Amino acid sequence: MGKNFVKDITEMEDDFAQWYTDVVTKAELIDYSSVRGSMIIRPYGFSLWENIKSELDQQIKKTGHENVYMPLFIPESLLQKEKDHIEGFAPEVAWVTHGGEEELEEKLCVRPTSEVLFGEHFKNIIHSYRDLPKLYNQWANVVRWEKTTRPFLRTLEFLWQEGHTCHETDEEAHEETIKMINVYAELCENILAIPVVKGKKTDKEKFAGAKYTYTIESLMHDGKALQSGTSHHLGDGFANAFGIQFTNRGGNLQYVQQTSWGFTTRIIGAMIMVHGDNRGLVIPPKVAPTQVIIIPIAQHKEGVLDFAYDLKRSLAKTVRVDIDASDKKPGWKFNEYEMKGIPLRLEVGPKEIDKNQVVLVRRDTGEKFFVKLEGLRNNLEKLLDDIQTNLFARAKDHLLKNSQEAVSFEQFKSDLEAHSGFIKAMWCGGRDCEDKIKEETGATSRCIPFEQQSLSTTCIYCTKPAKHMVYWAKAY
Amino acid sequence: MGKNFVKDITEMEDDFAQWYTDVVTKAELIDYSSVRGSMIIRPYGFSLWENIKSELDQQIKKTGHENVYMPLFIPESLLQKEKDHIEGFAPEVAWVTHGGEEELEEKLCVRPTSEVLFGEHFKNIIHSYRDLPKLYNQWANVVRWEKTTRPFLRTLEFLWQEGHTCHETDEEAHEETIKMINVYAELCENILAIPVVKGKKTDKEKFAGAKYTYTIESLMHDGKALQSGTSHHLGDGFANAFGIQFTNRGGNLQYVQQTSWGFTTRIIGAMIMVHGDNRGLVIPPKVAPTQVIIIPIAQHKEGVLDFAYDLKRSLAKTVRVDIDASDKKPGWKFNEYEMKGIPLRLEVGPKEIDKNQVVLVRRDTGEKFFVKLEGLRNNLEKLLDDIQTNLFARAKDHLLKNSQEAVSFEQFKSDLEAHSGFIKAMWCGGRDCEDKIKEETGATSRCIPFEQQSLSTTCIYCTKPAKHMVYWAKAY
């Protein structure tokens, strides 16, 4: 990896935020526009989203859900039906006040999420326990009026899926909530190679209108946490607000129990900040739009391009392969595809053709291999598997190394100053302590993990009896 | 088809508009909500759209286009850059004037189409002829502030894809425009079994900001036409407005030539109105979410349900098959799946099991077949092919029978009164005649078809020399 090919990007150790901005633009994931806080998702960025979406959509359907599409606009009166919900979302919605040339009688908000639209619809279509469960999902764009924005991580508009379900019992809704947080966790770990901590949000951090919220939290390269997917048990709050009742098996009217769960384009930001390095993106093979990029060497020499294109056609049967036969210099091409995080580079020139072999270079480790054509396909598949496994192992190692345990608030603060990352610490369950910890350290409660440990018997802040171990961190 | 199973829907001959509304709601394609003019696309409706989208997306990618995603909002100043475009769209856009608790300095419109966003982006990323062509597409929701709306046909918000491309030459842009109108036509004819007339829009009917517009026009069961897809050559109008220039092969700065093209959820309305009948929807097999519905008969009898489920598992390898083993009566189920337009019904009960056969009923013709289990799969595939072919042939026959030729304006008017449908008639090319024809008959120019005929030498209205043969019709 000659220094002569180092790209014009900020080193992540110098300025992580600038490194991130450099990478998302130079790797051509996004572009800015004159629309404040919104981003243009360019072909490379969008094909990543298409791959993620396709994987998740399969899982959503396999678990029995059906896709639907709800309106973009929500009349103000509809948004106001559930009290906690409107309080949570009102400060960050965009309002449509004029249509064509006329002023609207009732203003419409651009959906920040669609619980109220689903609520109204569910009331129409659910009458009996025979109509349950209703397991719906929608792929959509939503808008939240954010003051400061960053591509993928926090934008005025983003793309996501939002699941909305109705059930007969609290227990069944609970199982659904757990099932979907597990679907998200598996997608993150198995496909995106992003290790996550699964747990419950504190009441302070739960979704506006939910009974409780489950979350998966991941850890970025700079030690900040990122909420990567949430699943909410809504109880019967929305059902009460919207009158979603059904005749139960005993013949009595009863409110449904609901859930909702969402996963967004934000995860692309996580993928960048978990796997990327100073040469740019590193994309996990399972989700990479191009897994192998062929770079012909001395391509003006007879036979090289023919050979390279034949190779591409033959490999295309088993891997996602592309070729760059442009007249740019090989060094520039190496640069470009490293920046784009293509898992494997395949070089082939006259020397390789003579020897009946190719050169393979791993993006994750920089390792170089000379591989005979015979058996190349198997080798590629094996290498791609290795890269996927290595990326996850590396990220898991980083997460574990950057998860400290603190048993005193002094230690909490000094740990957080010394190494950013997760701090595991006991908590009494009080909102006051949670607020104070945030105020004094900048760290928020990320989750009450499913896998509890007993680090001590007292709250890290107030020293009253502890109820839970909590993951704390500064977060995106 | 016993009358006892006739559904509670209006007959199309009595009130076609009411028939349409009955069908879209009773077949559970859509639901209404408190959002005026918007619709909820329910699972069955959305799975139709997913199938259409998947077919079209494949063709869009196969023809070299890449998917991207642009912002939902357009600042007023950006929308105003191209004069014809803003004039065309300003009367029908929704305006966001407030974000969170603050009033915006510049109002934002919710995209009615995205030419201006692409224009701004293209300016950023195109510098040299080496950057061309740029072949982009986006799947998105758009909003047009319509006064009167109908599900799928005309809604405040709809789903679509919009292609946006940049080229070096006028000729290349022209070829792209033709290529994409052909992609739409093939999708309509080969997948949706909707025959179309391909042609050019008159200047009056072309897209706001385009040099010219190609269109495909289809004919509904009630004789009204429906514009089913359009492809625009934008020339260099947007390029001038946005300054999209590149260094050409001769080393000089030059404006790009652009195209845009779109296909929407409207096509679902066309599919309903072309194939549907008084028992409900009729869905072409190639796009049907369920191609075969298994209805167990006397399902309480031993072995029936096991047999039916085994059959489902075995058939699922080659067709999209579902089973309804609910405790509703078979007659109700027949009703329901006829309403939903499932191409084939498969009945199996004790008698059939004894005889090692099943009963198949075609949705399009009502024909009933007794088919041995051996060879059932081949028979199903053949029948589904036949249904697809028959639906297209039937619709094509309807289109041809309802395309009259008129050589005098008197004949034009009396033909239109006698039979709704297309009227082919010569036209001088003058805007005045086009306006007058609309005013006096309600028919608009649908297109100047690629396949021209010379019906006479004079304009049907002014009797001056004719330039083109035009398809005229009342239209959705």
From TrEMBL, chains A, B:
The keyword Transmembrane helix does not apply. It catalyses: tRNA(Pro) + L-proline + ATP = L-prolyl-tRNA(Pro) + AMP + diphosphate. Keywords: Aminoacyl-tRNA synthetase, ATP-binding, Cytoplasm, Ligase, Nucleotide-binding, Protein biosynthesis. It comes from Rossellomorea pakistanensis. Consists of three domains: the N-terminal catalytic domain, the anticodon-binding domain and the C-terminal extension. Residues 36-284 form the Aminoacyl-transfer RNA synthetases class-II family profile domain. Catalyzes the attachment of proline to tRNA(Pro) in a two-step reaction: proline is first activated by ATP to form Pro-AMP and then transferred to the acceptor end of tRNA(Pro). PROSITE patterns: AA_TRNA_LIGASE_II (PS50862). Pfam families: HGTP_anticodon (PF03129), ProRS-C_1 (PF09180), tRNA-synt_2b (PF00587). InterPro entries: aa-tRNA-synt_IIb (IPR002314), aa-tRNA-synth_II (IPR006195), aa-tRNA-synth_II/BPL/LPL (IPR045864), Anticodon-bd (IPR004154), Anticodon-bd_dom_sf (IPR036621), Pro-tRNA-ligase_IIa (IPR002316), Pro-tRNA-ligase_IIa_arc-type (IPR004499), Pro-tRNA_ligase_II_C (IPR016061). It is found in: Cytoplasm. PANTHER family: BIFUNCTIONAL GLUTAMATE_PROLINE--TRNA LIGASE, PROLYL-TRNA SYNTHETASE. Its EC number is 6.1.1.15. Belongs to the class-II aminoacyl-tRNA synthetase family. ProS type 3 subfamily. This is Proline--tRNA ligase. GO terms for molecular function: proline-tRNA ligase activity. Homodimer.
